[in-house]
Design goal:
Oligomer: homotetramer
CATH topology of chain A: L-amino peptidase D-ALA esterase/amidase
Distance between the termini of chain A: 34 Å
Number of helices of chain A: 8
CATH architecture of chain A: 4-Layer Sandwich
Largest interface: A-B, 47 and 47 residues
Strand order of the largest sheet of chain A: 4-3-12-11-10-9
Shape of chain A: globular
Helix content of chain A: 10-25%
Strand content of chain A: 25-35%
Structural class of chain A: alpha+beta
Mean pLDDT of chain A: 95
Chain lengths: ~350, ~350, ~350, ~350
């Protein structure tokens, strides 16, 4: 994969030390796959497609299904992230985290169930095993004919089957294909941080599907750039959402992961969002530590490690920093798209040179 | 519709005064529709289908999309009820409430989006309108080859398009087709109560998809009948779930409806359930009062009525009574089915005569 | 302590196997202490006092302050249980659980802070340690001149300093002194159950401060005794509350203890309560397992044991059974009291002989 | 009251239009009172007192007790804000909002009950009325001998009895007296914004008790000033908390006020906080609109107005802006204090001239 210049490549500054890929895949075992759907209008069928599906697979899924411990926070619930009842109660989930457009949630869920059944045939055949997928969404009805419900089963399987570690594509890819952030072209972004606690090294990685914010609110590195970049504005008020997925290999329990997820709000606030009413701002955090078999096959009493709460600030800081950078990575990797509603409206990617110029006080 | 004998027809006693149909459809405007899927095994395709879809449409949906005020409670979150982030935050939802099997949630959501787009074309074309359906589920993998993912788009549309008021079918219908309750055949059930507050009459109606409980726990009218009915037991521990939908025409706001939903736990407890770990026990409450247009088209400031909290006990009581009766209505209307896993196992409907005999102390 | 006859002594039947004291003190290390305040009216000072304070100390508090893992559920939040923000977020609390009357919460909290500072001087002197006590309450304004704010610092210290293991007094003692349940005299009650999981033995104990329910709702062993016992009714609608504290020595994590706490609703429902609006029905669960030092002094990474979720049903069942029995123990141990508002109204303790007669079908 | 220079007086820039006092008292009817406790060490009694109590009275309390509609958010629950069960469930509270130090919560609650009983004698005498006060706290054990539990009943009454509208004192006053923010002297701060919606004017006001943040995190107007102001640092990691109270006269219902309260996290994030683990970051929002009598005396069905959700972004923005400014107002009005633990350590107020210099890029 040839990677485009990213936020720090163009000269933006961030705190903290990223992992080797500065991506959610820096958390050992986490893989990411996409299906990107781009089609010109087809008379009588759709007005133009610009959407997709993102799959984040928390850890090596060969062999048995291992849950990951998890927490979730619905900062602004005007959106959907299925699987939340499970995560809230059980503190874990099975299988991948999927992100797509608002009207693709159902098909993505349907197809993910199929993929899980197929992949873990033996368990689904023998046990009374069920699958209630974790699927988040943001609205792409400006750039995509969302009412065409374009996401099909094969798209979802493509995202799942192509998931890999290493560098991660950003911008107009996967579920983030048709996104708009701060009235610039938005999309998929990622970042990570290394954390050292009492001599032990951990990684925290973030992936966002950034579809939120108004131009008036937009800030970068503390500079109100939105007030200086007034061209090609898109709409009067917030219309989108942001999904944040935070992964770590540190041994955090569900009640700690809930708190970690909650830091998403401070993270998105760093670029000026106030969490607009129309925005489904929902944040998921999971830990790949303390792996164990699924409950039906796990031991009666499990031994776990749990990090002392007094060290959580390092993770909160890493999450906030990573969310801030992932949002900008999404925007900087994104490419111009022409809207379907209102038809013909150009949604521009941000001009990195101009952005840096303004941030640097020119 | 020829209605089967119901719990009170066979001689069981309940408190409170039901509405004319003793059904959720007693709440003015509420309609119910089903798609029931029953198929013998097809070699290489599936091992036998016994499942379906239930649609509850909160009020007259012609013209514009009117949200209903709503609250939700996840008593045991080992299940799914999509749309909950919205309901928790906004206090309302748009469109129908759907209930199906665990692996049918995705397709039901997908199809419901299509139905909404089709039905409210003008709004979806003109506004940036999205649809995140409310879909609950329970697991029917004992009686249904759940891994065949049998629910298709046309099933969902059938449930939605056939929704009507009046008497409501119970037992092996719709999403409740393949359910098991207290190790007897379970399914779909309903009941209602009339409430008078300060001279004004209101109705509260309940629909359940009953798939919960072990025989050991089973009680009817305070009698531990499960200890007396030991034949045809199905499994060692709780494996299912129960979805409870509570509708009312009383003017209750979201924070009150959350509390009303929460009474579902006391309701299901009346037949002996302890809310088993494997059970997704999730309760939704909505009010058809205070109707207004969808937010994009509603006035800047809306006038609402809200019932004084001091009268809520009457609604709590009605909800508990209706849940208790609806569960028994589901079981008494249900019919025997043979399991697919373990194959050949007979899951019997409860014998009403024997039940009444035991309750009456014979 | 001479123990009065308890619910099972008078012939009522319950499921499950209690511990040796059938009390919360069967959970190793848990101690209970009371301060009971009973005074005749004093002209110009108060109209009569009938109140008190209960202290539950989760485990041996000598040496260092060890938190206990905890979860909480606010089934009906029309009440107070301080410390809940901490418990929700951190999953643990430090120090005792206190229960008193509604207007005694502040003084009980104040005095408990003093007791903690005094008892753990070294830690409070050296560390930046704070204490935010866990204090629940129910309203006793019918039997007690609650507006006299009778609870003083020495009462709280008395409850804390007299806490012991072994048999536990019930009825008109401690915080439960002025309580009314189902329009009979209520109060403090306790019960416990033994649980065996995969060869390991655990104990679950419950303490309630029972001040809830209307006569119309009252049921015992599934019999609607409230419809048969119509004498000496007190008020038209629910006015009180119930606090439930669940203790166990099983290794449960906070997200599991939240779920365990939530079973309180099914427990109180077994005697007919619907969770009336005026009732603060708040449930706390804690586990004495996985003891570790307070966070400032605990290791960076702690090793814990956690019980597999698949075994939780045994604990849910034990909690429901213990709550049901503890409420009846409270009522049966209680003694008649004359009200202060309305003055002179007699609030009778339930007549055990008559109760058993009705339950037995006489 | 002679008001000190405030954040915008020294040249800091903020967005939005403040009300006449740029204070929470700009919301009609809201009054604020303080008790400030400052004492030199007294051998054998205490090591020095630097603490107090703040009272915010939501609206004219003469005559009957009118609840205010309310919502609450516990962003980081390592703290206390009593009354939260009530607010979460009922969506309103009665009486004042109090803020004090961590070990003063109990006495403040106790005294507030007394004040309410005294002030609304008739209602407390006639009805079965209870009072469960709303009391928040932050930890001042660095500057105050918190273990001396210095807050007494008369202090609380002083804060309540002196509450007035108009300009509001800031810095080392009331509950904020002994606070530390970003390792500078912190305290009490306030700010407000005017909002126009569809031709109607509303006000939103904020009060904070700022005791949070580390120097490393500190940012002002997007500039990382904490990295430039390295003198007089206090501790290695976050140790405090922040309480945010948001008042408005806009007709918002509880489910909307919950969302408004939640914006506190973005507000505090604007000065660099990540919501540290040791910080109890709890946010309360209330609306003085839709006033009605207390439930015992209110009509059976109440008529309310509710603002359309589509306008909430203006309130979210106003809340974030006001929180940001109130925190800086608190810090700029604050004055140096010498610590009691570690004894003798000087905690300096921020130097406004130096701050502005750095923000302006000098």
């Amino acid at each position: 994969m040839t990677q485009k210049p990213r936020a720090r490549d163009i000269g933006l500054k961030f705190s903290g030390m990223p992992g080797p890929y500065n991506a959610i895949t820096d958390v050992p075992g986490v893989t990411v796959g996409y299906s990107t759907i781009l089609e010109n209008p087809v008379e009588g069928v759709h007005k133009g497609l610009c959407t997709g599906v993102t799959a984040i697979i928390p850890r090596g899924m060969s062999g048995s299904i291992q849950p990951v411990w998890a927490g979730i926070d619905s900062f602004n619930g005007n959106g959907e992230f299925t699987g939340s009842h499970l995560i809230n109660d059980l503190g874990w989930f099975l299988g991948p985290v999927m992100i797509t457009n608002s009207h693709g949630v159902g098909m993505t869920s349907h197809a993910t169930v199929g993929w899980m059944i197929d992949r873990f045939k033996e368990i689904f055949n023998e046990d009374h095993m069920w699958c209630l997928p974790v699927v988040g969404e943001t609205y792409d009805g400006v750039l995509n004919d969302i009412n065409a419900r374009a996401v099909q089963e094969h798209h979802v399987l493509e995202a799942l089957d192509t998931a890999t570690g290493g560098p991660v594509a950003e911008g107009n890819v996967g579920g983030g294909t048709g996104m708009i952030a701060y009235e610039f072209k938005g999309g998929t972004g990622t970042a990570s941080r290394k954390i050292t606690v009492a001599g032990a090294g951990y990684t925290l990685g973030v992936m966002v599907q950034a579809n939120h914010g108004t131009r008036n609110w937009f800030e970068v590195s503390g500079v109100a750039v939105g007030h200086r970049m007034r061209e090609d504005m898109v709409f009067g008020h917030e219309q989108g959402s942001i999904i944040v997925v935070i992964a770590t290999d540190a041994p955090l329990m569900p009640h700690q992961l809930n708190r970690l997820a909650r830091r998403g709000s401070i993270g998105i606030g760093r670029n000026g969002s106030k969490g607009g009413h129309n925005s489904g701002d929902i944040f998921l955090a999971f830990s790949t530590a303390n792996g164990h078999d699924n409950p039906w096959r796990a031991p009666d009493v499990m031994n776990l490690e749990i990090l002392n709460d007094v060290h959580l600030d390092l993770f909160y800081e890493a999450a906030v920093q990573s969310v801030e950078e992932a949002v900008l990575n999404a925007m900087i990797a994104a490419e111009d798209r022409v809207a379907v509603k209102p038809a013909g409206k150009l949604v521009r990617a941000i001009d990195p040179a101009r952005l840096v110029e303004i941030v640097n006080g020119a």
